[in-house]
Amino acid sequence: MSRLMIVMGSIRPGRTGLPVSLWALDRAEAMGAWQSDLVDLLDFAPLMSEGDVTTLLLRDPDRERWRRRADRAEAVLWVSGSPLGGYSAALATALEHIGGELAGVPFGSVLYGAAGDMTAAAHGLRRASAALGMRAVADPVLINGAAERIEHVAFRSTPQEDLGLRAALDALHSAIG
Fold first, then answer.
1. What is the CATH number of domain 2-176?
2. Residue ranges of the domains in the chain?
3. Structural contact between residues 123 and 92, judged by C-beta atoms closer than 8 angstroms
4. Where is the NADPH-dependent FMN reductase-like domain (predicted)?
5. How many Å apart are CA 170 and CA 102, to the nearest integer?
6. What is the DSSP-derived secondary structure letter of residue 58?
7. What is the rounded (10 degree) CA torsion for 78, 84, 85, 91?
């Protein structure tokens, strides 16, 4: 089985990223080809809130733990909201603290938010991941109106979103060889 790291980039209370990430994890495990590792960035560092902005602070021990976890991944699926046309600040911070651990690793993304914002976030995340030496192998899965389709901790996906995620997971698995 190949090792897929699903990174939940949302760290805010009441976050949409948890149900969306659990949906991605469920679909990956249902394929039977993945040993999935759901990484919650909230587990790696304390939060600092400045007004409306919530930031992830990585201390040295957290940074090393994050790098060791990333080093085990054979493929990565980023899951993030797309605030103001970017990806989450927590995910940006986590990417800043990666060295060569993810070089050559294929990645895909699942983004949720407003349509225009998700497209811009997908481009930014692709650039940031490429700067780490990662390989984009799948089209991003874009989810409009995700927050309105959450019941308890379950995300109700559409058939189109399920197909998009399956295509991304298949592309990631093929890229591993």
1. 3.40.50.360
2. 2-176
3. no
4. 3-143
5. 19
6. -
7. -20
Rounded to whole angstroms, the Cα distance separating 40 from 170 reads 23
What size, in residues, is the chain? Answer: 177
Q: In degrees, to the nearest 5, what angle opens at C-alpha 9 toward C-alphas 6 and 11?
A: 130
Secondary structure of 119-175 as H, E, C letters: HHHHHHHHHHHHHCCCEECCCCEEEECHHHHEECCEECCCHHHHHHHHHHHHHHHHH
Structure tokens at 5: 């790291």
Kindly give the interhelix angle for 17-31 and 159-176, rounded to the nearest 10 degrees.
60
Question: Is 18 within 8 Å of 10 (Cβ atoms)?
Answer: yes
**Per-residue pLDDT reduced to its tens digit, 98-123:** 878 999 999 999 999 988 899 999 99
- In the predicted model, what is the mean pLDDT of residues 42-51? 67
Q: Find the angle CA(132)-CA(17)-CA(86) to the nearest 5 degrees.
A: 50
From residue 102, how far is each of 24, 39, 123 by CA, in Å?
A: 20, 15, 18
154's tokens: 């379950």
